[in-house]
Amino acid sequence: MSGFDDPGVFYSDSFGAEPGGDDGRARRAQLQRRFWEFLRQFRAGAGCSFTYRDELKRHYNLGEYWIEVEMEDLASFDEDLADSLYKQPAEHLELLEEAAKEVADEVTRPRPAGEEVLQDIQVMLKSDASPSSIRSLKSDMMSHLVKIPGIIIAASAVRAKATRMSIQCRSCRNTLTDIAMRPGLEGYSLPRKCNMDQAGRPRCPLDPYFIMPNKCKCVDFQTLKLQELPDAVPHGEMPRHMQLYCDRYLCDKVVPGNRVTIMGIYSIKKLGLNSSRGRDKVGVGIRSSYLRVLGIQVDTDGSGRSFAGSVSPQEEEEFRRLAALPNVYDVISKSIAPSIFGGADMKKAIACLLFGGSRKRLPDGLTRRGDINLLMLGDPGTAKSQLLKFVEKCSPIGVYTSGKGSSAAGLTASVIRDPSSRNFIMEGVLLLLKTHTHHKHGGIGRRGGDDDHFGATFQVIAGLLQGGEDTSGLHHILSTSIKPPDIGEILLLADGDGLSIDDELPILSLDSAMELSP
């Protein structure tokens, strides 16, 4: 009869059940067990070796504490598990990394002396699924795994972010340790009041806590700016951008100008706009979107590709043998657009453009940049565009643009201030960045009314090459490129039919930045 008079405790949870209950913990343990079985037992085929177990062991022994998992492999092992990772990647990725850490602990035993402490393993994701575009990211895809292509146009410096933090009260020295930080761009709000028992002692002031840096566990992180591909931009519209968050081994994997395919979690963050009184001007529930990167694939094929391969010893020996030839200059120039007859001087100039010059510092302190800029003037139908397209295919990062379309909007780059670090960074204002810009301006200077336009264009170029600022508004004239911190090589074409311009202005513009003599 004991307890018959106990009325019980009834309560209402207004915010839903906590995931840390018994059922939630059992579910998490089950999922982590399935991830552990996948990493330990998966094989690409019958008779093949264990794919991820061997990769974990090899990477860990090399001091690279990461592994790349293909979503197709996970789907072939357990389709429900892969579907759960697609729909709830933030929760399941943590379990996958814990499972990878357990497998690494098993396959690396016994470890050498001094390396007994097991390192955390970062899991990167890769998928062969068709990518989406930035414009197709809607609210129903929030917190889901997405794959989008684009071009990196800005990259911040690598900084540190705390994953475990300790804080202390200034007044009573009360310490709160091992505070978990959520991954991504979300921060942590310090408590405004001390939670120490204040009985019999003075009350602690408001906002008493400060961070103890020596007791925090941090990881590297970097923010990138992704711009959608020129092919995906509707005619007449501006390209859209997306902020990316990379951490640990994903930092410093790409540079501005790389065409990439990003695999990540579509996330939101609180806007950091404050009014003069310090109050947030953004309404409740309004957030800014960003992408928490889980995998990066740098495109190595097609226009604007990036060369990521390695040179074999046989190829290196062949290059040395070619460099030792006395007529190597003629051999290289004849290899440029061999299907086009003649134009030896133009081909030699293009060869100098592709190889670039050497940066020189003179005894008087004057510095000459090694970037070579080239202007080709000629009658219509003299294979200027064919030479241009050949250069676009040979250059590591290059795109053929035309001044008649929206893809040629913008000149060089803009210098902006990073809102987080307050440092000045250089950002491309084109649809993309490239080490070589190849641009054909159709019909420039054909008639008398265009002569002033042509001369003003060269004034813009001359000012930009010497570190000036464009205030002419001629953003539809040409495309240029940058290789931070200098402007990169420029190759311009213009039809010279009936051209009448100032003879000195183009010469001054070109001579200020290049020498074409071999």
From TrEMBL:
Xref: InterPro entries: MCM (IPR031327), MCM5 (IPR008048), MCM_dom (IPR001208), MCM_N (IPR027925), MCM_OB (IPR033762), NA-bd_OB-fold (IPR012340), P-loop_NTPase (IPR027417)
Pfam families (alphabetical): MCM (PF00493), MCM_N (PF14551), MCM_OB (PF17207)
Compartmental location: Chromosome; Nucleus
Main location: nucleus
Entry GO CC: chromosome; MCM complex; nucleus
Record-annotated MCM C-terminal AAA(+) ATPase domain positions: 328-433
Gene3D superfamilies xrefs: 2.20.28.10, mini-chromosome maintenance (MCM) complex, chain A, domain 1, Nucleic acid-binding proteins, P-loop containing nucleotide triphosphate hydrolases
Keyword presence, Nuclease: no
Summary of the function given for this chain in its UniProt record: Acts as a component of the MCM2-7 complex (MCM complex) which is the replicative helicase essential for 'once per cell cycle' DNA replication initiation and elongation in eukaryotic cells. Core component of CDC45-MCM-GINS (CMG) helicase, the molecular machine that unwinds template DNA during replication, and around which the replisome is built.
Family membership noted in the UniProt record: Belongs to the MCM family.
Quaternary structure note: Component of the MCM2-7 complex. The complex forms a toroidal hexameric ring with the proposed subunit order MCM2-MCM6-MCM4-MCM7-MCM3-MCM5. Component of the CMG helicase complex, a hexameric ring of related MCM2-7 subunits stabilized by CDC45 and the tetrameric GINS complex. Interacts with ANKRD17. Interacts with MCMBP. Interacts with TONSL; the interaction is direct.
UniProt-recorded name of the protein: DNA replication licensing factor MCM5
Gene name as annotated: LOC101559807
